[in-house]
Structure formats: C-alpha cells, structure tokens
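Hi there. Long-time user, first ticket. I'm pasting a complex I've been working with (about 1070 residues overall). I'd like to know whether the download I got is complete or cut off, because the file seemed smaller than I expected. Thanks.
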Amino acid sequence: MVKYIPNTEADRQKMLADLGAASVAELFADIPAAVRLNRDLDLPPELSEMELAAHLGALAEKNAALTCFLGGGYYDHFIPAVVDALVGRSEFYTAYTPYQPEISQGTLAAIYEFQTMIAELTGLDVANASMYDGASALAEAAVIAVRKTGRTKVAVARSVHPEYRQVLATYLAPRQVELVELPHEDGSTVADLIGPQTAAVVVQQPNFFGCLEDVLQLERLAHAAGALFIVSVDPVSLAVLRPPGAYGADIATGEGQSLGLPMSFGGPGLGFMAARENLVRHLPGRMVGATNDTRGQRAFVLTLQAREQHIRREKATSNICSNHALCALAATVHLSALGPAGLSGVASLCAAKAAYTRDSLNAVPGFTAAFAAPFFKEFVVKSSYPWDKVKARLLEHKLVAGPELGRFYPELTGHFLVAVTEKRTRAEIDRLKAALEEVAAC
Amino acid sequence: MYPENLRYSSEHEWIRVEGGAPAKGGSGIVGITHFAQEALGDVVYVDLPEEGRVLKAGEAFGAVESVKSVSDLYAPVSGTVVAVNLELTGHPELVNQDPYGEGWMITMEIADPAELDRLLTAGAYQGMLKEG
Amino acid sequence: MLKKGDVPLIFEMGAPGRQAFSLPANDVPAKEPSWPAELRRQAPPRLPEVSEVELVRHFTALSNLNFGVDTGFYPLGSCTMKYNPKVNEVLSRLPGLAQIHPYVPDELVQGALQIIYELEQYLAEIAGLARVTMQPAAGAHGELVGVFLIRAYHERRGNPRQKILVPDSAHGTNPATAAMAGYEVVSVPSAARGGIDVQALEKVLDDSVAGLMLTNPNTLGLFDENIHVITDLVHQAGGLLYYDGANANAIMGYSRPGDMGFDVVHFNLHKTFATPHGGGGPGAGPVAVSAALVPYLPVPLVDFASGCYRLNYDLPYSIGRVRSFYGNFGVLVKAYAYIRSLGAAGLKQVSSDAVLNANYVMHHLKQYFDLPFERACKHEFVLSGKRQKEKNGIRTLDMAKRLMDYGFHPPTVYFPLNVEEAMMIEPTETESKETLDLFIGACAAIAREAIDEPEKVHAAPHTTAFGRMDETRAARQPDLRWRPKEEVPAGNAVRG
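Hi, the file is complete. Here it is re-exported in full:
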C-alpha cells in the first residue's frame, strides 16, 4: 500500500462502478499488445521510510567530509539557518509556476525582489527570473548577441570557466558560429582577435584563475568592434568590485550558488542574467513585472511572455520553460539577510583570507602563486610535486583543494586552484600550509 | 471599419498609397486592420524594422504583441522601408484605438506598383473575413 | 505609498544599519587588497537592511499569498502536481549529500556517484532504453539535449537533415527547441481519435525529416493506438523519435517508450517522480537513449567498474556539455528516494490510480462541458468551454478564476491549442475520492452559474486576496524591478 496514494480498494470499486468498468485494466485497453509491458519493471523492492532513511544515510556517509578549499565556480560559503527555514515553507516549494497570479503573489513578489537585487548587484537595468546555472546563462547571452547582430563569431576568453566554454560551444554549434578563443598571459586575457564579425566578447570576472581582468579595456575593444560585451561574474565579488553595468557591459550573467545555495555536488544551481534596457525583449526566461489588480492593489505578474516558448514557439528567444525559482528565492532571502554590510563583510573576509592563504602557500618550498594579477577569493598555485602526492597528503589532513588545472589547461599541468571563503578559519588555513610543507619535506 | 481607399492583404495588413496613382518609387503606408487588432486584444508592443530595410512581398518585417499572443507582420508589397512609426514604442495602444490612422506602422517606397493589384479591395477583404 | 492589500516588498521595510546576519571577526592579518581603483565598487549595492524577525515575517507573509499542493487540489494538466514526500526533502539535506563540492575526487564521493548511477539504471528500465544523461536541468533542457542528439546522429551519417515534425497539439517548447537546434518545424495534424493522422504523417516523411517529437499519451491525455506504426514509419524514413516524458505518469509499468519505438526520451523528475516544483524550478530533465545514440550523450556519464564508480568523460562523439558539473543532484536524490520508496509495484499503482482518478473526474464532468474526444483517457483529459461561451459568453478563463473561490487551483487553460477554450485536468494519484468529488461539485456549480449567474463567473475571483491582474499594463509599461522613490520616473505610478 503506497502511502502517498489515498485510494483504498473500496474507493476504487466505487469509482469503477461509476465508470461501468470492471477493473482499471479496462482503462488501459487501448494500449496495443505490441507495446505492452508484460512483466514487472525490474526495480529494487520498495523500502519503508525507516529503511529509506538508513539507506540514504549510508550513501551520504560514503562521501568524505573534508575542509573545502576547492574553487572553480562553486564555493563553500556560509548559509544562515533562516534561508532554509523560509525556503522550506511548503507554500513556496509545492507551488507551480505562477501562471495564476491571484494565488501566487508569494512566488511572484519574491522573484520581483530577486530581479531587483540582481540588477542592483550587476549595476544593469533589468534581470530575468533566473536560469539553470551560470554556464547555460552565459551560453544564452551569447545567443542573444548572435541573434541581435547577425554576426558569425563569438570571442571568448580562455580564462572563462572551461565547462562554461564547453556549454557555449554546444549551444552555438547549430548556428554555425565560430568560437574564437582569446588567450591569457599571466592569468589575464589578451584581446587581439576581436573584429567586425564578432557578435560578442565574453569574459569572466574574476576569471577561472581567480584573477581580475582589465574589463575596462576589454569593453572598449568590444564596443569599438560593434560587438556586445558579456561578462560572467561572481555575485559575492560585486559587493566590492566594480559591477558590469558601471563599466559598460551589455549583459552580465553568473552562478548564484554562492548566494545561499548548498553545493549539493554541483546542482541545482542558479543562473542569473541582467542586461541593458534596450535588450529587455531579447532576454530569455521568465520575467515578473509590477502592476495593479482590479481592486487597485499593487501586485505582480509574469510579463513579456510573448518572448517565451509557450507563445512565440519557434521564434521564442529560447526554449527555456522553467526558471530555478526556489533557488532564486533562497538567494533573495540570503541577500536580504546579509544586506549591503553583510555582503561586503563576506566579500572582505574572503579577500583577506585568500590573500593570507596565498602568501602562506607561496612561502612553502616548491609551491608558487602562479599569477601576479589582482585576485578576489581564489588563486592558482604551481606545484613542483606530483598532484597525486599533494592530494593524498591533503586528504590525510581532511583537506581538499583544487581542481588541478591540467585536466582543463594542458599548459597548466601541475597547477591547482585554491579558493578561500569566509568559512575558512586561520587554523584551517594554517593546517593547509602545514600539509603542503609535509609534501615539500618528503 | 474597412476604408475603401485602402488595399488589404490576406495577412490582415492594409496599405494606403500616397499621392494618387503610383509611379515606380511611390510610397505606401502600412498597418494592420480592425479585425487584426480586435483579434489580438490589447496591443502591448510593436516590433518594427529599421529604416532602409528592403522587403519582398510576403516577407515578415516585424511583429505585434498582445499579452498572450504575437502576430508576425508581412509586407503587402515589395519595397524599402522609409519611415517607421516611433510613436508606437511609447503608445502601442494606438494600434487598437486608430489602426488606420495613428496606428500606422511603416511607410514603404513601393518597388513594383503592379503588386498592388494582387491585394484585396475592401469588399474582397470583408468577404474573406466572412468566409472565416 | 504602501496601501493595505498591496503585496509588500522587502525593500520597503527595515532601517539603515539593520542586518539579519552575523559574521566572525577576521582572524587573519588584515591586508589591503591589490585591486586597482578603477576595478573597485564605488557605492554599495542597495540591498535590504532588515533584522531577522522582519525578514522572517516578510517571507512568511509572502508564503501565505501562495497556493501549493500542500494547500489544496492542483489539477494542472501536463504538470503532474502530485504530493511531494517530506522524507525526500529531509534526506536531500543530509550534509553528506548537500555539502559536497562537485570537484571532490571520484574516490571520495562514491555515495553520490552511486545515487546517480542507480537512478540512471532505474530510469533506463522505466524508459526501456540503454543509458541516461542526468545533465538537463529541466524538461525543456532535456528536450534541447534530445534534439541535439538527433542532430549529432544525422550529422555523423553525413546529412543533418532539415526538419523536425511535431503534432499540432504539441507544447510550445517543442518548436522552440527544434529552432534552437537549427531545425525547421513542421506540424502534423491529429486524427479523429486524437492521435497523429498516420496518412498525413506518411505524406510528410522523407529524407529531410530528422525526427518526430511526440508525447504518448498526448497532450489530450489520449494514448495513440497507432504508436508502433508511427515509430516504424519514421524509422523507415531514416528519422528518429523523441518522446516528451511529461505524461509518463500515465504508463509506468504498463508500457515503455523504448518499446513503443522511441529513440530518445526525457523525463520530468519534478512531475512523474514527485520532486517539488518549487514555484517554477529547480527540476530535472534526464534523457534516456537507445544504444545507437549513446556515443553522443553529454559528458560525463557515471560508470561502474572494479567495484568503483567514476565520472567518464571519454565520449569522443559527445555533443558536449549543456551545463556545468553533472546535473541537479539535489533533485536527483529526491527522485531516487521516491523510486526506492515505491518499487515496481508502487510505480505501477501510481499510474493505475492516476488514470482511474482522471477517468472518474472526466466521466462526471462530461455532462457539464464539451468533451472533444469521447474515449477513455489516461492520466489527464481535456474539456472545452465552448458550450458556456456560446450560451453566455463565459469563457474558460472566467470559469478557471471562479474555481479559486471554491478553494481549488485552476486546471491548465487554453492548451492544447487544437481545442477551443481548452481546460486540461490532471488530478494525479495522490488525491482522495472525496477531494475529486468536491472538485466535481465545484465544476458543476460553476457550469450552473455560467447559465444562471454569468456575471459572477465573469468577475471572478471574489474571495481570493487578489483579483485579476492588469496584464496589459504590465506588458506596456514593464516595471521589472523596485526602485527607490527618488528614481521612479514620472507617470509610473505602480508604487504610488
């Protein structure tokens, strides 16, 4: 008896009687014999709730609990308890997309607040209701540029997250758009290859190496060529770094996992996209707007839906149907909890601790900070020792750092990322240094 | 509802030729009909082309949006866009209020006046509407 | 000025200096960052400054303005608004599952990889296909992957082909997706019984057709009895078949898309497998494929060898990535838990009761509303509000709004497009007979009101906290973010 199904046999009999059917099987009579499944599905037997909890508990224990210095787009930031307490309200998480606004003002108002906060952080005019993740948001931004300019190239910095560049390639492939890679020198982008066929110049700030790019110069080059300037940003950094809107970006995208979402082995994340006013009708995804109801009350609705798939169909700005509403809600609660002072405080702690860590590790023989460029909360370390040795020694101390960059950048084999958030204590950082000293001593 | 001095397309656009019998290079003003604006409901946005765009008869040149639907706009004849009604950016409701006057959309320099003969008269257009 | 009845915004509360967050002091030597002046932020972002109690009251108030499955009956056709088990919420939050970074080495996350691997096996079995990618974050995302896979398959054979066929009853994502993948969309009409018109299909099938996108049962809730004929025809023309799994709740244990002849299938975990809709996401849209399409799957896949799970990136013909990392793992965990809770018999019972409940409601409503297709439905059915419109001008929209006064969320309206004044109703299996009877009673009452008191229906809803919205204004004068009073342009009086 499945506990989520209220119907009892007695209920079923009454319903079948009304239908004049002898059994439920009659309702499936139109399935042709050729496609009927004539055996049970081969799945493990059902588990009671207790057994389920024990099983998943055991699986959870097989994932090592380590002090996290890993970077590369997802970060171990602190999430205050109030976020999950509010996001866990079932009126929020068991609701559908707010297509009936009269009974969905909770979802709609929260998204309007989210759109406002993203616009504020990025310094741009308008944001959408969120997307799947930073990678797909960046890809969709490039598609906007290609559709709008009609040009055939997209220049993307090699220092943009490698997985994001792969997603970009996948999304652009059917459009016969050439991806031109802009190389990096000492951790920052060199922009020689921008020309009249460039639809967009795509960079990341801070970039995958944690370094700050000269975005002012990149903006000038992009716009001089008539290309759109698209920047993928770390939302926490925007508390202390100049936002894209203030240096002329046309579109800003990014990954919002750092804003109150658990790392959860890589998903669900939170893509965001903000743009200049003139691009609002080109934006994919849902958008919430303010209006009044018939009783004169201020309220919110999904708007500009004519861009979307359910109306525009093959001419839609994208096929995207959902947003990551609950993740956007978490970010909205998180940013409201932090406020400007809290977010600056977090950003400053990250920067200070990352600087301290970098100096500490740089002093260990055989380990060098790879790039001299300014950085925010992560940086690249070059190791003279085999990565497996380093990894194993860190693990002995219940530490993990990385990723090792050779898997993405052959020219950076033997280099690894170190990310330091506000959660990393001095003791943990000193332990990291001690572990690397042990590697050096061997 | 369907002025006699206009010509109509089966896609519910109208064209008013300026200055009497057109020579090659004469101009025509284009918009959508009363039927179209009523079917759309409240128009919220009109997506218009840039001046200078060259169009073939039947080519899609823009779109008119209501809250829950979008309709493409098709050039009734071939020609070049010489003017665009920028008033519609701030006041899309003009399309509903005055589809043949202030709700005009583009002015075209007509490439081939003979194409006008392929369009419908007011009577023929209304006949088409009746047939559904 | 905020009036009573207005929806409150977090920006309109709080005071300078308040925050709902505490930070430890910096325990490392302070060091001035080396950022150049021109790269620093000048003015802090204008985020709310509220205390924790204000924060909690605000979002609690917002939640009270929402209607979820936990509030009441939510018969949205094609969305499968079934109950979201609470144990799955709790288990997905276990630190060993929620607090793992995606770049932790494989050997240290064997539990997570096992969940992904086993879920893949379960979904492959339910689909009747070979392997599954967990990357897509939503149904539409899964569709995009599916069409990219079809494209990759044809490109490898030297001709990507130009067209994707979709039925005229298709969801809007289908043509949008096909266009994103560079295909032209051609619509195929439905036949009298509601399925695809096979003769019309034969006429359009040739070597320019890359594939056909279908859902079965279709958006009318009807199982296409010619499905194996259809899939054979498309295969003979060299095309592939894509199955939109939105309606999988109807057939688990009864039939499998792979056995129907489909080559690629996406599932909506947030529909069929009970993960929460979240107000619009996050969901997950895993895609299952036949053996012929496995080489093109996005990387990485999870493999198991020598007693160890690992991420496999070695797919030389892969279409690449469609997102960062591996998938919406937090959602995958919930679907995994659901399938483990139900087992094969449980899932079959789910489909049986979903179909029984839908037929029961349809049987009792067909006397009040036009039923375009008079045959047994599967997990959902479509009614038409044509009769009411012709009698008194009452439209499906009006009746949907009136349902809110009776305490129900309205069904899906105006979809599919090939039914006039459509109402698509999907009760799901997690509703009791009493709830269904109350819903039937409410629909009957509204049908009567449409005749006797049409004005009441036309002006609905009456008892909800909010009335209908001025959507025209929202689209004509888009106001997509809050601004401080001094920044509000003249004439934009929404905030008053």
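A couple of notes from our side: The mean pLDDT of chain C is 94. The domain at 87-341 of chain C is CATH 3.40.640.10 (Aspartate Aminotransferase; domain 2).
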